[in-house]
Amino acid sequence: MAATKKFDLEKSLTNLEELVEELESGDLPLETAMKKFEEGIKLTRGCQTALKEAEQKVQILLKSAGSEDLEDFEIDED
Q1: What is 9-64's CATH topology?
Q2: For burial by CB atoms within 10 Å, which of 2, 21, 28, 65 has the most?
Q3: How far apart are CA 12 and CA 46, in angstroms?
């Protein structure tokens, strides 16, 4: 059985923030910026997958607890 590496959402988000800062600085050569952009896309996809899996687990837990109604979570963007 192959060992699977657990995805670290918090670390990935931190890395993604650092990549964005580097790219926004505008000080990178084009080739380096493209590689960092590609890395950012991979991190974003990993984060989306991890969040989707967490959402599915929450839905399963709520259903097993007898509460099927979920309320939308709204984020204050102040």
Answers
A1: Helix Hairpins (1.10.287)
A2: 28
A3: 8
